[in-house]
Amino acid sequence: MSTQQSQHSRKIVLGVTGSIAAYKSAHIARLLISEHFDPWVVLTAAAEQFVTRHTFSGLTQRRVYVDLFEESPSDRPPHLLIPEHARAVVVAPASADFLARVAAGFGDDLLSCVCLAASCPIIMVPAMHTAMWINPIVQRNVSYLRSVGYHFIGPDEGDLAGGDAGKGRMVDPLEVVDDLKTLIVN
């Protein structure tokens, strides 16, 4: 992909993983559209326990991808087609499980394969309980992903789904989109 193509592309891959914060990703999709981006949504199987592909296809007016082996609308397999010409891949929320699988180089679902095949910036927006976020294994995975060029937005401190509060809350969708715009302009 030429630099000129990537600078003019408005395509953003929005990956959604299994977390109670997945509902916030619908707002991110809507904000991307209002900023004239073209979001391509990829859901993990665990994400579908919280949100549906119908929500995102309704918002984006485009196909939502879930299965690594689903038929592609082109001659390219989905894990190569989806990140092609993308300005960025944003995984919001990024669960502890997903961070671990990507840090280990797993390509066992569509979203992890998209991350492995992407040549654009990859942004992780973590969301998990504080006990998970501060776990040394999760912190090792985050540190490793940062060292290989992944970007992180958040997490915030605040009320959590379990009824308590702490660090691990997904940042506000407006902050995700503002940080994304800053990152891809630079």
Quickly list its features.
186 residues; alpha/beta; Rossmann fold; five-stranded parallel β-sheet; two-stranded antiparallel sheet; 9 helices; 40% helix; globular; disordered N terminus
Number of domains as seen in the coordinates: 1
* CATH-derived architecture: 3-Layer(aba) Sandwich
The percentage helix is 40-55%
The largest sheet is: 5 strands, parallel
Can you identify the CATH class?
Alpha Beta
Low-confidence stretches: 1-7
Shape: globular
How far apart the termini lie comes to: 18 Å
| Tally of strands | 7
Q: Any idea what the CATH superfamily is called?
A: Flavin prenyltransferase-like
The CATH topology is given as Rossmann fold
